[in-house]
Amino acid sequence: MDDHKKAFVVVITFLSLFLVYGFLCNHQFSIMNTLWASYFGKYANYVTHDDGMWFYKGISTCVQYNGDFNEKCDKSLGICAGKNEYDDKYGGYIEQSKEVITSIINGGVHPKCPLIYYGTD
Does residue 73 lie within any of the structural domains? Predict the structure, then answer.
C-alpha cells in the first residue's frame, strides 16, 4: 500500500472512532447535586454541560459553560453570559443560568445564538 492509501485508512479509522464516541457515548455532565442545580430550578434535571457548552435534554443551548466565570469567552462560538451583552466573559451562576433558561423558553436554543442550527429560523 502506498503512503497516500495508508494515510487515508488512518484518517478514516480515526474519524470513525470519533463519530462512534460522539454519537454513542453520553459524555455530558449532570448538574444534579451541585450548586448549579439550585439556579436552574425545575429545569435542573434536564440541564447538563460538556465541551464548554450548556445542553438542555441533550441538545446544545448555544450558551457557553465555564466554571471560571471571569475568563474571556469567544462570542463567535456561542452566547457569553457576562454581566451585559458587551461583556466577553462567561459570567457567573446567575448569568449563565439566566441565559440557559432563556434558551429553554425559546425552544431550546438561545434567540441570539451566533451559530446556525438546523430547525431554527
Answer: yes
Q: Structurally, how many domains does the chain consist of?
A: 1
Please give the model's pTM, rounded to 2 decimal places. 0.72
In a domain, 115, yes or no: no
Are 115 and 64 in contact by the 8 Å Cβ rule? The answer is no
Q: Has residue 62 been placed in a domain?
A: yes
Domain that holds residue 74: 27-105
CA separation for the pair 13, 107 (Å, rounded): 36
CA distance 74 to 114: 11
CA 61 – CA 58 distance, rounded (Å): 9
Task: Band the pLDDT of 27: cuts 50, 70, 90.
Answer: low
Length of the chain counted residue by residue: 121
Using CA atoms, how far residue 115 sits from 10, 40, 75, 80, 95, in Å, is 31, 24, 10, 13, 20
Separation of alpha carbons 21 and 10, rounded Å: 17
